[in-house]
Predict the 3D structure of the following.
Amino acid sequence: MSDLPLIQADRAVPSPAATATSTGGGRGRRLRLLSRTDRVVITLMVLVPLLLVVGLVWLPALATVALSGTSWDGIGPLSEIEWVGGRNYSDVVNIYPPFVPAIQNNLLWLAALFVVATPIGMFLAVLLDKEIRGSRFYQTALYLPVVLSLALIGFVWQLIYSRDQGLLNAVLGTQTDWYGDPDVNIWAVLFAAGWRHVGYIMLLYLAGLKGVDPSLREAASVDGASEASTFFRVVFPVMRPINIIVLVVTVIESLRAFDLVWVINKGRNGLELISALVTSNVVGEASRIGFGSALATIMLIISLVFITVYLAVVMREDRR
Amino acid sequence: MSRPRTEAEYLARLVPPSVAGIGRRRLLAGTAGAGALLGTGLLAGCGSDSESGSSDSKTVSLGSNQSDPTPKNVIAKIMDGFKSSSGIEAKINTVDHNTYQENINNYLQGKPDDVFMWFAGYRMRFFAAKGLAGDVSDVWGKLSGLSDAFKKASTGDDGKQYFVPSSYYPWAVFYRKSVWKQYGYEVPTTLDQFNALGAQMKKDGLSPIAFADKDGWPAMGTFDILNLRVNGYQFHVDLMAGKESWTSDKVKKVFDTWRGLLPLHQPDSLGRTWQEAAQSLQQKKSGMYLLGLFVAQQFSNDEQDDLDFFTFPEIDPSIGAKALDAPIDGYMMARKPKSEANAKKLLEFVGSKEAAEIGVKIDPATLVANSQADTSGYTALQKKAAELVGSATEIAQFLDRDTRPDFASTVIIPALQQFIKNPNDVDGLVNSIENQKKSIFTS
């Protein structure tokens, strides 16, 4: 059976009878039952992604950590890189004024998306799932911000928030400096970010809702459950995988929040975010690669905390 | 020039690097070995056709950051002129201005074009010192009509020339003649007169000084001119080179003077773009605006004659008011051009009066460097600007061209914005700048 065609690979799985008779030595036998093609395919399927992950994720990540201990400016051969130890980190914490606001803003971003935007997106998905009239239209309208290019989004909000010529001040008759006042601009941007996030979450959740078995709802209504308790006690628990995805997406979105603030003022003056600080130090003319890498490493560590929590939850799930 | 000159470029700038394709750089920049790989990336990728044709001795390639229609047209016409005078064809590789500037390090370390456009100033000398630019001293021997000031601005730390200037524009205080006539304002020549004028404008219901710093760089112009007036040119150079301390009383005096003027500035400047501030001048809501000559772009053609300017008034009589910011744009040669002879011929041509005259004809927003060029085509504003720069004793480039780019963009921009937000804590501010300066300049 060594040269079985790929398409028949299932046959390599032992028949129920075979498994039943060999409960003790089943493991070894099952391995032997894999055809050579199977083994080649499996090896490739493991190796190729592994190489990609190592080459495109882990090596750059480790290089970033290594570079964060240097003062490289991006010019000249690697041999000239000067090792400065932890100086970049102490500089980041002690003398770099935008760092603390950046951490605060990232956390604020996470909280705002998690507490406000995500629930609204889920709520809208539930509404749209009711097949109300024109639901296609609402769906498109709400999802549009996710599709629009960032350049356009930045420009749209510039037209709305501009102090002298913007729509918002013209309508409200105010003189609020939406983008320039550091106490106001983070909220203005969070609103714009939420505007996009709501559409994203809505679509994800709507897809999940469509997949819920209708008979569950029927059973609930036969039992006399109200609309709200049907959702919270039946639909919501059933949607657990989607809920986790939504949670992960929310965390990812708030950690990599970057584009809007970059479009607005390159993440300065009240809109500091770690990702924007990394970019302004590493990319562009500045080329403070060592210093920027230190910021990137800090960002990596923060991400690792969330990743670890997520993996722990998922793995515990699997073990059950 | 690093300023968006048109709406189109402004819009193009809104495209974040992640979208424009630089996002990958952040990932790759982490890989230690990626430096070489990157150089061949974004910029050089556009020049692939010039590489294939370069074995031919009748071509030379030019990396241009002049991506706006008018300057782009100037470059194209100059290269046409070069072809008809020398028979060598210049292949122009135009890259969006902002992208060009952000990628310059990788561009120069990869396979740059034979000749590339850049600015005079610290950054030019830095590339020269790092061996990323070719020595063009012998080209200077053949150039005529370029003043000693331009030669000085083109000279690297080793005394050789690495740069050929083509155009420049001054920073000054712009105003509308019709507004000033209506209220009977006079050009101030001292700080006291300037303050009195501002107070009068306030009474007349104008914002005295239009001001915008959302993008971070316009406030550098204000800092520069105050520093030049309070402490003089040499202190500006030394401060930018990291030799002078930011905690010194001289720097504090600059900020103190600025704080005195801040009430005259348009409020809420950190949310405003320079275009919006220029439009407030154009709409006669503001009395004056300290900016580069490019402010004229925000005025329609029939309003150009109404626009006038004066140089920032004297603050300290012993220092006077003769120094100013006038950034110079021009050309440099790659460290290893494919054909050095052709590259030098091109540099000689772009520095000549023929090339300058092409610029005069087409572009009203800049001044040409070559003094032998026929400048009868200048607008009244251009003529006056040329006179102003001609009478200047010292010409500074601009804060972000006169110092390290990492210092200018990651330290000075946030610091000046912090000052505008909270002008009262000058001590804390200059200490923070000095700490970061020490860390950056020693690395």
Notes: DSSP finds 15 helices and no strands in chain A. Residues 208 and 242 of chain A are 6 Å apart (CA to CA). Residues 1-26 of chain A have pLDDT under 50 and may be disordered.
